[in-house]
């Protein structure tokens, strides 16, 4: 039995786990949870992840499903250490995690479906205002990331030297969100240069939302 990965084609948190599974060379089965149809609230799925969110991971031999993308990345790193996605030195790890959390903990939570639904259904914000919200917070995280890259001699081909790390996975998820929300990305050239390098790797290129089996077919217009 292989790893069962609960995701959704355009989920940024699921994207992070999808990339890590591919980078680690692990075999998995992706099971889509349709967030637009509200399937994250189905009792059967809540039994897997009581948060009602993707990703979740069921690993053979592990007693409970795993949830929260950063916890899953940490698990994968500990159990499948090659290739390493985290430096071992404490100071280096702190830098990588600091970059990662700008995206995963500060930027991304402001644009998840439950927040968007609240803006729409409870606060009754119109579509243009909601889109301005999504673009603002998504870009703000990337601009923070850009400043952090500018101020550190440790940035290289990737966010931390020339090895892909968890920070790069989070950068790529945030840029993916920025593309989905139509952000202007001219103000983050260092971020985009790293993103272009990451896209040369299959794990990133093949994780793009529109390439996932549950993504809608492209419009013919
Ligand atoms: N911090 C969590 C975020 C999980 C999350 O909110 N995922 C979104 C998709 S990116 C989701 O499933 N949301 C469902 C909802 O908001 O109803 C993680 O990194 O795993």
List the helices and strands and how they pair.
Elements: E1 3-7, H1 12-23, E2 28-32, H2 43-46, E3 56-58, E4 66-67, H3 69-79, H4 90-107, H5 113-122, H6 127-150, H7 166-181, H8 189-198, H9 202-205
Parallel strand pairs: 1-2
Antiparallel strand pairs: 1-3, 3-4
Bound molecules: glutathione.
What's the number of helices?
A: 9
Beta fraction: 5-15%
Q: How many structural units, i.e. domains?
A: 2
Which ligands occur here? glutathione
Please mark out the parts with pLDDT under 50 across 5 or more consecutive residues, or reply none: none
Order of helices and strands: EHEHEEHHHHHHH
Distance N terminus to C terminus?
41 Å
Q: Write the CATH fold name of the largest domain.
A: Glutathione S-transferase Yfyf (Class Pi), Chain A, domain 2
Multimerization state: single chain
Tell me the CATH architecture of the largest domain: Up-down Bundle
Secondary-structure-based class equals alpha+beta
Based on Cα principal axes, name the global outline: globular
* CATH class designation of the largest domain: Mainly Alpha
Describe the protein in words:
By secondary structure, the protein is of the alpha+beta class. It has 2 domains: 3-83, Glutaredoxin; 90-205, Up-down Bundle (Glutathione S-transferase Yfyf (Class Pi), Chain A, domain 2). The protein has helices at 12-23, 43-46, 69-79, 90-107, 113-122, 127-150, 166-181, 189-198, 202-205; strands at 3-7, 28-32, 56-58, 66-67. α1 (12-23) crosses α7 and α4 (90-107) packs parallel to α7. The structure holds glutathione (GSH). Residues 11-13, 35, 40, 52-55, 68-70, 104, 112-114 line the site of glutathione.
């Amino acid at each position: 039995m292989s790893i069962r990965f609960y995701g959704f084609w355009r989920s940024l948190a699921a994207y992070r786990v999808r990339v890590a599974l591919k980078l680690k060379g692990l075999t998995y089965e992706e099971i889509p949870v349709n967030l637009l149809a509200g399937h994250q609230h189905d009792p059967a799925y809540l039994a897997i992840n009581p948060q009602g969110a993707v990703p979740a991971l069921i690993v053979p031999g592990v007693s409970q499903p795993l949830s929260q993308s950063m916890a899953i990345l940490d698990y994968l790193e500990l159990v499948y250490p090659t290739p390493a996605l985290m430096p071992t030195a404490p100071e280096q790890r702190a830098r990588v995690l600091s970059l990662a959390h700008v995206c995963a903990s500060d930027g991304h939570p402001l644009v998840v479906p439950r927040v968007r639904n609240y803006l729409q259904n409870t606060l009754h914000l119109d579509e243009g205002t909601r889109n301005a919200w999504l673009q603002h917070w998504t870009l703000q995280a990337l601009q923070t990331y850009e400043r952090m890259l500018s101020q550190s001699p440790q940035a290289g081909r990737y966010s931390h030297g020339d090895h892909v790390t968890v920070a790069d996975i989070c950068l790529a998820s945030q840029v993916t969100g920025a593309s989905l929300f139509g952000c202007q990305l001219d103000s983050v050239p260092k971020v985009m240069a790293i993103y272009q390098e990451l896209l040369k790797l299959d794990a990133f290129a093949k994780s793009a939302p529109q390439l996932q089996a549950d993504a809608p077919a492209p419009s013919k217009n």
